[in-house]
Amino acid sequence: MSSINFATREISCKVVYYGPGLSGKTTNLQVIHQKMPQDKRTDMVSLATEGDRTLFFDFLPLNLGDIKGFKTRFQLYTVPGQVYYNSTRKLVLRGVDGIVFVADSQRSRQAENLESLQNLRQNLQDYGMDLDDMPFVLQYNKRDMENVFTLDEMNAELNLRNVPFFPATAHNGKGVVTTLKTIAMLVIEKFNVKQGFLRKAAESVNNTGVHDVSLTKEGVSVSQAAPAAPAQPAAPAAAPAAATPFKMPSFAAKPPVGGMASGGASPFQKPVSSPFGRPRATPQPPRMPSFGRSVDRGNAEVSDDEIELRPYVPKK
Hints:
By secondary structure, the chain is an alpha/beta fold. Strands 1, 2, 3, 4, 5, 6, 7, 8, 9 and 10 form a 10-stranded mixed beta sheet that branches. The two termini are 29 Å apart.
């Protein structure tokens, strides 16, 4: 479930890096954080344990282009790899918009890869979500190790849906940015599947406040995510109508007119000082940030520019 701030014309999308322990999830975020321009990233938060690099999650909001005049902010998370942290895995998956599964290419880790992928499907089902209906890519990491599966063998085990996959060696940056760009484009494409839903959703809430938006097969559901600040004294406003989910008019049906369902505020949403901020008059054209050399979206191995990963010291 994405969060849309209609006052500032900003969409927050959530991408989760999933996979077995020590497969390279945290290393992916470290490389992305290092390669991103400073004006496109914030500080990365990391909580570690003795058994795994990530106990809870890594949090890295990124700005990656526009969606129909709305600025996009991607929030990147990783999950702990160990099975006994499954409750935390499941918690991080709440409201996810796209998933990157980081698999370990070593033959000795085959069982861990399969267990983690099955665990991902089960945790999504507990939230009423299906992995087959959301943006999803595979990253086959540690391709520089000895005794690794071939790409065909990895696909036969993990890629039954024939989703985009990328060979990678995360510790030197190869394949990391390509994976991020692809999942970001898939998330944006999912938003643009039904033309004009942002405009209709904005009209239904009068372009005010922060709202959670769910894009489903049936349409778009808009609910209030943060309490609106009281308006200045003026003419008494009409009482809101009964809560009614916003439906897309793509099926020749008139868009329903209704109020907003009340929901809990996300702890990661940007506070809004005034719910009646004026939207931008002229939306900016979509553009992606430059990560250095351009790369192709194909599934062939991509030779990213090698980088030297600096030691990462978590912010206290």
